[in-house]
Structures
1.
Amino acid sequence: MTLARALLVVLAACTTLVVVVRDWRPALVFLVGVALAMAGFLWEEARRGQEVLVGSGIGLLVAIDLTTAATVVLILLTTGLSYSRDFDVAERDELGLPDRWRAIKQAIRLPRPARPVDYLFPVLAVALVLAATLLLPHLYPYPARDVDYAWTFLLLSGILALVIADSMLKIGLGLLMLAFGVKLFYLAVAARIGLIELVLLNLVTIIAALIVAILSALLYGRAKTLDLETLYRE
Amino acid sequence: MSYLLLILIPFAMSGGCFVLRHHTRLVALSGAAAVLVDLVLLAGTPVEEPARLLGTTLLLSRPGALIVAAMLIVVLGSLVVWVFLAEGAYAAPASLLLLALAISACLIQSSFAAALLLLGAALIGVLLIVDLPAGATGPLSTATIAAALKYLLVVAIGGTALLVGLGLSSASIAGSPFGFGLIVAGLGMWLGLVPYHVAAVEVAEETSLAVLAVVIGVLGLGALLLLMSALEAHARTLPPADGLRRLLLGFTAVSVVAAPLLAAGSARRIISLLLLAGFAQLVFGLALESPDGARGTLLGILPYALAITLLSVGVSLLERHVTGRPEGTALIHDRLLASIGLIAGLLLLAGMPPFGGWTSRSLLWQAARRHGVLAFGVLVVGQLALIVAAVRVVRIGLLAAPAASPQPGEADPATSDVESLPIVVPRYAPTGLRYAALIFIVLSLVLGLYPAPVALQVERALSNLSFIHAGQGRP
């Protein structure tokens, strides 16, 4: 098995788990796996001989990629811990640091209960996405490689995650998967990776995470939960 | 240097406005001044002169100059409204940042980078939607958050389709039909074409029309330039009579007809659908791929920007509640200048003389007639539906008397003598904003009565559009 094929398997597994898992905490961990697999693909693409940013090494590109991934994961983690449904600001006696730590620990300890039937629809949907991933690259105007299957699966899974999302954090995860997919796509098809494009890709990813954090704060301020059904209930 | 200044002026002012964001009127005034400076700078900026910046090429094309001018007018209109009617603390800084990103997208030559910049601008637009109005107490309504979320999803998925389409198209010398299809779908979402119009309509209902003007207007105008670039690229690669171009034509034709037909309900909802219908007509002109069609589109860009501005100013003035002002009569009698502004905006959208926009509309009709009976029929039906919807806005918004008007016979005897005393009725709008509305009305009249300077620019721009010449003579 080549490195690209191994990375594809890791990326597909992590992406599937991000979509299927209902709780945002393990999903965020799997998103880190997606980001690491993406960094591996970037390394592989550079080794393939693609012209990358004149005057800068591949190490810098990977570092930028990982820094962005770490930033957005941290933004989502902070958002999730701050606005988790498992504790309520109103129930706390103060907003001091010790109290916040206690609340964060409580949020980490209390995952949302899930039934096996909850996983049925996401698993079936991921199977459909997998089938689409195998078919779509035949429409591309060049012979498909492993990386093409990777970004196709990542993008379709991102859209699926947005469609089946039940909380604002899952929306955030879906958006980040889309952003990662677009970045991987650009690295795969660009004849020469441009500085502006790379900077913008990373900036847009971070802005998307920040927007999700802001919307989460607003929704939590209004409904004391991040569940999307509250948006349509009131 | 001029290109850099065009970007940096709104960008720097956005930073300044963010620091002083709690002085909402001051920052809106500063922002409006910066946009005016940018407009003056644009008039003196050389076009079609490439410049290098950070390894990429910047170039202001002639169509790009028209679109940047339209963006500046739209943002200027909203900022002028916010000078007098305070919006949220982040409205001015976010609008200026959005404008800076959109102008950068018009200047940068890489379509992929331009789409990324517009995507960034659209994401900033989400901040504008959820910005709490000044003086608001309590959290934001869930309906507003839902509207922002829908807009975010449409923009993100549309942006992804667009970016992948652009990348696939540029990955092969022969072009990619699949890539072009994705571009059309992505731009359709960004332009709010039917059936992707729901998010724009909800945004209109949940925020002020000045915010909608910035969020929808600027992104739509930027997307129009991207569409021109995509058509340019595909004229060189794809066969001239391929089904994808018919797909684009059909897609916009559906919006031209369906958007005004769907325009029912509240005045804001109807206005938002009218704006989408007006924009769909512009895109339809491009999709016809004939010189007259493209000429009509380019000539219609500035009137469209003025229409958005007039509608946002007019509706902002009409919706304003003034304490102590009796509201017994229809708004068209009570708030005359605001009503004229709204009507002028609707006439601009409908392409009625003497307001600017009629030259563009007549060229579009001419191009459609040459293209075929079906295209002409689409424009006729769309135009009729648009006029009917505009009349509906006037009936709902201006002619209907407020429900809570006091009855003459129900006066309280204890206070009747007090009521008969002369009272000072406050004005419905600050004098400055009424003057601003008057200036925009006069501008739209001037553009309609003397379109020659803009027409000259359009003729020069047409010579650069090769996809028109490629499509010339096609049935």
2.
Amino acid sequence: MPDWSRRRALHAAVSTAVAALAGCSGEASVSSSPTPAPDDARRVTDYELKQVRNADGVALFGRSDADEPTPTESTPGGVGAPSASTHLTGPEELSAFAFADVPQATALARFVRATDFETRSVYLYQRSIPACYDLRLVGVRRRSDSVTANFCRDLKPADVACERGDRDTVGVAVRLPFAGDGFSGHGTGLRGSCGGPGRAVGEGGGGS
Amino acid sequence: MTGEDRRGARLSRRGALAVGGAGLAALAGCAGVFDRGDDPPSYDASALAAAVEAETPRPPTAFPVSVPASMVERHRTRTRDLLDAVPEDPSVPNGVVTARLREQRRRVVESMAEDRSGEPPLDRLRSWRWLRAEAAKLRGVYRAATGDADGAAVADRRDGLRSDLAAFLDGWEYRGRDPVDAFAVHRRVERLVDRCRDPLESGSPFPAQPTDAVFRVGDLVGGLERAAAALADATALRDRYVGDGAPSRRAAVVAAADRLDAAVARADRAGGDAGGDGTPPFERDLENTPAQFLYDVASDLVERRRREMDEARERGHPATAAANAGTALAGVEARSAVAAAIRDGEYGRPADAARVKTERRRAETALTAAWDSGPATVTVPLARPAREEFASGVRRLRSELEEGSAPASVSATHVNWAIGSLAYAKHYARATPAAVDRLASTLRGAATDG
């Protein structure tokens, strides 16, 4: 079994539950560490982003040592892949995750594995989303011991074909410009609107 | 935050202030002091249900201007035309947009078929204005979703409506033969002007890619239709009322608003019902009593109405400002009566559920008397805070009784709140006739002076 500390295991479990509860309206922002003063949070701008979308709704990744659905299968009940997020701070943590055998998951895994964890860390996120909606990364914020990624969700353009009841899985990997030493928590925020398609207010950052 | 949430927040603040006198109250032996050793009681649900079973009384609907069927018919025809531009079973590539279009169309069709013959004429007009705007919103969404949205046409329509509104405002002299009737009619017109102005001032820019933002397009188009409908009704009501040769009453209404404002300020200062820091003029522990809520409502109304009076003036709406001044005047009087009653030990912990019924009967009697105390065109708007608080008390208790599986008892908090609301409705309604008389005489006096 990889060197997966109890603290980090708890951290990942909490984050998964919180991401699932974040819902589609309002803004949720949490961390497993005490919330610092707002002015302690700094915007991260020079990150690299990899975002993928699987139209079959499969889970793109999951803990290989956890009692979770096989990554290539969607969750029973039609609710789509389980939401999950983690802040990967080293290769030993990465080895605790298995990626599904679908092109989107492979692309995500390749991006994550290409990270130099001596100087970088990766925020990794997946979420089930209705097929007629887009998920966008709004921005990333860093505190002394935690990192938070904020997303928004918006309806796709009216002329894009999609079925109302279908669900896709969106996977996001954000390569952060700092190593993960000293970090003990992470959070995910999701708001129900980006202010109109094509108008998501980004806080800066790169993409790939 | 909902109104009730805000109220709850205020309640805590004022409750805390009032409770500050608890020690003194205990020494003074005031009636109604809550024994902290007891648990707050609960009350028999069936008795409470009987007390709030009847509907909140409806105000008389007298209005100096009749609403001809043609005014409603114009809205209906326009709504039908807008609806006909959207297929009965619309379909676009995005399944969520399709579902919303179908749902919205179904709702508009169902609402159009509702029987509105029992509604007061002005309420019926309002219903149709809303429906007309909903139909326009639907058409706007559909056009955007099918690539037919025309941003230039939307901009032209907005410019045209702004010009129409400016022309209307230029020729609006608050004309009327009777100054009190003129106040009532033009107050209604002021509200319609607000309905027209809001979407013209607050509309967001038309999206560069309408298919990407179909509901934003719908909101823009619906807002302009609402503005057009409101302006049409404002124009029709004004023109039907004014007639030939009626004098301008604008100066009289402005003067009346100013005089009443000064009267409110004097009464507020002289009342001594609340110190500048909001300290209550009594020493009594109000915790867990109807008095706690009652005093909060009584204090809040005066502040709120004076603020709304200032806002109406800033918008250039003297009739609304005068009406708010009238309600503030009644509110100051009601606050004095409430403070005196609390000082005398009233509105302590209710003995049983029958107290709700008693308070409701008293409030209803006072409200009816208030409506009958003068021309309904003045009594109804000035008595509105009483009816709203009456309805709020009844609604809150009903909602608690309907919560879950028909509770056998209701907690003291909800009963206290209901009694507080009904008691305020009573005190305010009793203060209304004097404010009505003051407003009417001030309007007539200002018209004579002018």
3.
Amino acid sequence: MWKQLAISIFVFVVGCTAITPPRFDPIEFDYYVILAVDAQKVKNEDCDDPKAVKNHFLPIMKEITSRLVVYTQYKRNDNDSHNIAKELDKMIDEITNRYEASEPPSAQYCTIKMDLISTGAKRALTAIGKEK
Amino acid sequence: MGTLQDLINDGNPFISELATKAADIRAALDAEQISENEYVELMDDLLDLRKVNEAACTIEEKIAIQQAIETIKIIVGIVKGVL
């Protein structure tokens, strides 16, 4: 009796968000799918072509991570998502800076960087998927 | 202190993957496929991925990953000292 009353008061005071897991977010999920697939494709097929990486793929990937950063910034009670998005956005900035230098980075650097970005995006998918 | 190989053989897939990637990055440096500067950046990225990993893990896995990261940091620190 007292236990039920205590739970009722708790729910009344703090609301259902405290006992309900965060909802699955298909928008955020979709962004990470695109990022993971793009990074995997560049890693497997395009790192030998610096012009394509710089002029085509990196701008697309930057667009995705920029959207993710803003989107997650305004999600309620979800600092983890925002930190993940910022981390991946920073990685895109780093590789972009290297391609904007006079000498493009090595193909192997591109391969490893894209692998890390893809891994990060897939981990994010795992985290989001777990929240279903 | 454990070695990268110990971590690669760890039962936790997150830790094994982190350690495998650390070993791959080191191998790329040794083969002169990446510069020292690129190596440092990629290792930093790898260690920063823990934030992403931790979001996908249980508390027990988070603790294990943090311990593994500390080991990798020490190994990377030694490597940085050599460079």
